[in-house]
């Protein structure tokens, strides 16, 4: 549904992740679902869920910013290893962020 980019927040001198709704999906489905995702993410408060820094729309591109956490994505690990053992899943699901 979206593409995530690594960007540099010039104002705060930090790396951030920018999630941008893919233009072809925006044209086909509209922005509503992604805007609901933004609202939901902005209202979540949990130590294992990244907060939303900001969001917006420029030239028809809807996006939001969140912290960048360095390391391998869960998707990359699943692609490399396939299904994970239950103990690993529990560690990932309950791990407190260290960044």
Q: Could you name the key traits of this structure?
A:
Phosphorylase Kinase, domain 1; 4-stranded antiparallel beta sheet; alpha+beta; 99 residues; 4 helices
Task: Outline the structure in words.
- This protein is an alpha+beta fold.
- It has a domain at 2-69: Phosphorylase Kinase, domain 1 (2-Layer Sandwich), CATH 3.30.200.
- The chain is 36% helix and 28% strand.
- It has four helices and four strands, in the order E-E-H-H-E-E-H-H.
- A hairpin with a 4-residue loop joins strand 1 (2-9) and strand 2 (14-21).
- The two termini are 26 Å apart.
What is the helix fraction of residues, given as a range?
25-40%
Number of strands: 4
Major β-sheet strand ordering: 1-2-4-3
CATH architecture annotation name of the domain at 2-69: 2-Layer Sandwich
CATH superfamily (homologous) name of the domain at 2-69: Phosphorylase Kinase, domain 1
- Strand-pairing-aware structural class: alpha+beta
List the helices and strands and how they pair.
Elements: E1 2-9, E2 14-21, H1 23-29, H2 32-43, E3 54-58, E4 61-67, H3 74-81, H4 86-94
Antiparallel strand pairs: 1-2, 2-4, 3-4
Give a brief outline of the structure:
With 99 residues, the protein is α+β, with helices and mostly antiparallel strands. The protein has helices at 23-29, 32-43, 74-81, 86-94, and strands at 2-9, 14-21, 54-58, 61-67.
